[in-house]
């Protein structure tokens, strides 16, 4: 059941990454230069309240060093790249490995 959840969340992250990539591509063509939207800007455009809530929660429950160099660095990266990496990690968590036949078994 958890594998299914991770695969579904991976699919959602992949869809959002593709949408962010298409938006960046459209803006790049319109501006005639490369435009990469940082995750912080994309997140604040969609839902600024949840971004502020995340910052408040991290500062209240985790050491301050976790927010400043850690999450600020991630939030400064292009949204497409971060969401693609998240989709890949979630896919790895939900991936079901095939069982291999043992070395001396007759099955192949």
Q: What would you say this structure looks like, in words?
A:
The chain is mainly alpha-helical. It has 5 helices and no strands. The protein has helices at residues 2-31, 39-46, 48-61, 64-75, 79-94. Helix 2 (39-46) crosses helix 3. It is extended. It starts with a helix and ends in a 14-residue tail after the last helix. The mean pLDDT is 89.
Question: Top keywords for this entry?
Answer:
108 residues; 5 helices; mainly alpha; extended
Spatial extent as radius of gyration: 19 Å
Low-confidence segments, ≥5 residues, pLDDT <50? none
How many strands, which pairing sense, and closed or not: the largest β-sheet?
none
Number-wise, the strands total: 0
Averaged pLDDT: 89
Could you state the order of secondary-structure elements as H and E? HHHHH
Q: Shape from CA axes?
A: extended
**Helix/strand-derived class?**
mainly alpha
C-alpha end-to-end distance: 28 Å
> How many DSSP helices?
5
DSSP strand (E) fraction?
under 5%
Tell me roughly what share of residues is in helical segments. Answer: over 70%
